[in-house]
């Protein structure tokens, strides 16, 4: 994320999203009621007399400002859409007051104007800027000769695969089998190499294959082997990837990795709940009560709850009392678990009941 201009007096920031992570951050920075401006494309009715063109209209691109009424981020398509009422634009092309959806594009400036920029929104913007300077990690989990990849993103895990190996014969010395295994490993390596800037590779899975793959890297791709560590798991596929996240393996490699930190925090919370601990609170009413009592040491809040509940003041209250606020992404398993608890939870300094 880049910031082109920031004017605190006028209440606007002009940002340029550069990655899918940036779009995810923006989906939580922009709130209903904000004013956003960007280049957009709209089909305009053609009145030249050409019936075909008149029926279909003509696509034109121009700057448009809308008052946001709905925010939609689609993880699998990587699209961020901001829908609202048009407040500014070329009046000869579009009627002011009509509805339009701006699809936020990568590398295209987006102006966000708010009546009030909360400290949380400004910190989220800075987080996106800082995150763009960091490198990524990837988890590769094997189950027999099937590999599943999980790329660490700011919004969660982006899965790739499965990558299948056509391995014939039994586990004996066989030239064709050995060749098939090497071809499978090269397919996995080719997928890994598609992602630039990787600083960590965690190799996990069942049985000996993870170790064999690491040995292959050490022999044929030393640059990747230097970035790799091995982690045993009890499952393959996406379950195995989540198992590695819960262990905190990626967090140890990249301490500031948000997803691993969030998964670890949720795992700790669930452990405390299982033990009937008196030093946790969960659910909206109980957590907000703990905040007002100044008892919160660490607040966990689902990202979807922040704009809906407008609790910026409570989040700032926690931080002002030297507490920590962690916004949990709804795009991974940990977020789903927090959602089932009402979207709010906290670790407490002392019991409140």
Report on this model:
It is a single chain. The chain has about 350 residues and is of the alpha+beta class. It contains 13 helices and 16 strands. Strands 1-2-7-3-4-5-6 form a seven-stranded antiparallel β-sheet. Strands 10-9-8-11-12 form a five-stranded mixed β-sheet, with helices on both faces. The chain is flat and about 75 Å long.
Q: What fraction of residues sit in β-strands?
A: 25-35%
User: Residue-averaged pLDDT, rounded?
Assistant: 84
The residue fraction in helices comes out at 25-40%
Shape: flat
The largest β sheet comes out as: 7 strands, antiparallel
Assembly level: single chain
DSSP E strands, number? 16
Structural class designation = alpha+beta
Number of helices: 13
Rounded to the nearest angstrom, the distance between the terminal CA atoms is 44 Å
Low-confidence segments, given as residue ranges, are none
**Order of H and E elements:** EEHEHEEEEHEEEHEHHEHHHEHEHHEHE
Strand line-up across the major sheet:
1-2-7-3-4-5-6
Radius of gyration: 24 Å
């Amino acid at each position: 994320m880049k910031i082109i201009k920031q004017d605190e007096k006028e209440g606007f920031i002009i940002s340029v999203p550069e990655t899918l992570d940036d779009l995810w951050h923006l989906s939580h920075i922009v709130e209903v009621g904000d004013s956003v401006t960007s280049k957009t494309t709209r089909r305009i009715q053609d009145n030249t007399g050409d019936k075909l063109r008149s029926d279909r209209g003509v696509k034109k691109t121009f700057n448009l400002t809308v008052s946001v009424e709905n925010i939609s981020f689609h993880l699998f398509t990587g699209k961020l859409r901001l829908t609202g009422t048009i407040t500014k634009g070329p009046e000869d092309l579009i009627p002011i007051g009509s509805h339009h959806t701006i699809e936020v594009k990568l590398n295209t400036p987006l102006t966000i104007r708010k009546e009030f920029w909360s400290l949380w929104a400004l910190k989220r913007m800075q987080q996106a800027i800082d995150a763009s300077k960091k490198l990524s990690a990837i988890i590769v989990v094997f189950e027999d000769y099937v590999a599943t990849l999980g790329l660490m993103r700011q919004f969660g895990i982006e899965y790739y695969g499965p990558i299948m190996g056509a391995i014939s014969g039994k586990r004996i010395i066989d030239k064709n089998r050995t060749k098939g295994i090497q071809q499978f490993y090269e397919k996995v390596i080719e997928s890994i190499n598609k992602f630039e800037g990787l600083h960590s590779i965690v190799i996990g899975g069942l049985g000996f294959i993870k170790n064999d793959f690491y040995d292959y890297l050490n022999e044929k791709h030393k640059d990747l082997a230097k970035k790799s560590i091995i982690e045993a798991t009890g499952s393959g596929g996406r379950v195995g990837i989540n198992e590695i996240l819960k262990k905190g393996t990626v967090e140890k490699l990249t301490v500031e990795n948000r997803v691993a930190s969030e998964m670890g925090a949720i795992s700790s919370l669930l452990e405390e709940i299982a033990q009937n601990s008196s030093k946790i609170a969960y659910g909206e009413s109980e957590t907000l009560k703990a905040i007002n009592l100044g008892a919160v040491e660490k607040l966990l809040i689902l990202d979807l709850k922040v704009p809906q509940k407008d609790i910026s003041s409570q989040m700032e209250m926690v931080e002002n009392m030297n507490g920590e606020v962690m916004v949990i992404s709804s795009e991974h398993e940990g977020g789903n678990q927090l959602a089932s608890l009402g979207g709010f939870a906290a670790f407490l300094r002392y019991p409140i009941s």
